[in-house]
Automatic annotation (TrEMBL):
It is found in: Cell membrane. Keywords: Cell membrane, Membrane, Transmembrane, Transmembrane helix, Transport. The keyword Transmembrane helix applies. The chain crosses the membrane at residues 12-34, 78-97, 109-131, 143-163, 184-209, 243-264. It comes from the Bacteria. It holds the Pfam family BPD_transp_1. This is ABC transporter, permease protein. It comes from Catonella morbi ATCC 51271. GO terms for cellular component: plasma membrane. The lineage of its organism: Bacteria, Bacillati, Bacillota, Clostridia, Lachnospirales.
Length: 279
C-alpha cells in the first residue's frame, strides 16, 4: 500500500512539473497574441491583463502599411532554396559515404563531423569580405550559402546513420535486377529516408527562417531583408513605439515555423530515432 501511495505522489509531482514547464513555455506566446489584439491605449495601461476589447487594427496596419509581406517572401525564398540544397547534398553525400567503398571514406566523414565544431561567428568577417569583392551582398545567395554550409555536417551525419540502417542486400538485389546506382538511390533508397528528410527540413526551416546573424551581417538593403531582420523596422516605425503593431508583426512572422513544426512533429520524432539502433 505504501509503495502505491509513493507511486501516486511521484506521478502527481511529475505531472505538476510538466504542467509548470508547459505554462512557462506557452505563456509568452499566449501573452504575445493577447497583446497583439489589444488597442494601443489598453496595452499601455494594462499590458498583462486580459483584453477588454479585441481589435485586429494592429494586424491591418502591419499588413497594409508595413513591408512584412516582402520580408516574409524573402525569408521563404532563402528557406526554400536552402532546404532543397541541404536535402539534395546531404542525401547524396550520405548515400555515397554509407554505401560506396572508398579509401578516403572515413576521412571525408570526419571532415563533415569537424564542420559541426566550427563557430558561425568566426566566418562572418571572411564571408563579408568575400561577398563584398564578389558583389553579392544584399542578395538571397549571400544568405543561402552559409546556411547550406553550416547545415550540411549534421544533415550528412543523419543521412549516413539512416543509410547504415538500410540492408546492403536490398541494394545488391536491385543491382542484380539491372538498376544503376543513380536509379537505386532515386527509386529505392531515398524514398525510405522520408522521416529523415522531414526531420532535417522541419529543423532547418525553423532555424533558417529565424536567422538573424547572417541577415544582419550581409543585408542592408530594405528590399532584401528577411523577416527576422525586418521586425526591427516595426519598433518605432509609426512615430512613438507602437507595441501593438510590433507584437502583431511578430505573431505573423512566427506562424509559418509553428505550423510547420506542429504539422511535421510526428515524422520529426520518428526521424530522430530512426537508425539509432541497427539489427
Amino acid at each position: 500500500m505504501e509503495k502505491i501511495v509513493k507511486k501516486r505522489i511521484g506521478k502527481i509531482i511529475f505531472i505538476a512539473f510538466i504542467l509548470i514547464f508547459l505554462i512557462i513555455q506557452i505563456y509568452p506566446v499566449v501573452w504575445l497574441f493577447m497583446a497583439s489584439v489589444k488597442p494601443t491605449v489598453e496595452l499601455s495601461t494594462s499590458p498583462f491583463a486580459l483584453p477588454k476589447s479585441i481589435t485586429f487594427e494592429n494586424f491591418i496596419k502591419v499588413l497594409s502599411g508595413g513591408k512584412i509581406g516582402l520580408y516574409m517572401w524573402n525569408s521563404l525564398k532563402v528557406t526554400g532554396i536552402s532546404l532543397l540544397l541541404i536535402i539534395f547534398l546531404g542525401a547524396t553525400t550520405g548515400y555515397a559515404l554509407s554505401k560506396f567503398k572508398s579509401r578516403f571514406k572515413k576521412q571525408i566523414y570526419a571532415f563533415f563531423t569537424f564542420g559541426i565544431m566550427v563557430p558561425v561567428q568566426i566566418t562572418l568577417i571572411p564571408l563579408f569580405i568575400f561577398y563584398s569583392r564578389a558583389g553579392i551582398l544584399n542578395t538571397s545567395f549571400s544568405l543561402v550559402l552559409p546556411q547550406v554550409g553550416f547545415a550540411l555536417p549534421l544533415s550528412v551525419m543523419m543521412f549516413v546513420s539512416f543509410y547504415n540502417f538500410v540492408p546492403d542486400e536490398l541494394i545488391e538485389a536491385a543491382i542484380v535486377d539491372g538498376c544503376n546506382p543513380g536509379r537505386i538511390f532515386v527509386t529505392i533508397v531515398f524514398p525510405l529516408a522520408r522521416n529523415t528528410v522531414i526531420t532535417i527540413a522541419s529543423m532547418y526551416s525553423i532555424l533558417i527562417w529565424n536567422d538573424f546573424i547572417f541577415a544582419n551581417t550581409f543585408i542592408s538593403d530594405t528590399n532584401a531583408k528577411t523577416v527576422a531582420m525586418g521586425l526591427k523596422d516595426f519598433v518605432g516605425a509609426f512615430g512613438n513605439v507602437d507595441w501593438g503593431s510590433t507584437f502583431a508583426a511578430i505573431i505573423i512572422s512566427i506562424l509559418p515555423p509553428m505550423i510547420i513544426y506542429f504539422a511535421l512533429n510526428k515524422w520529426v520524432t520518428a526521424g530522430m530515432t530512426m537508425g539509432a539502433t541497427k539489427g
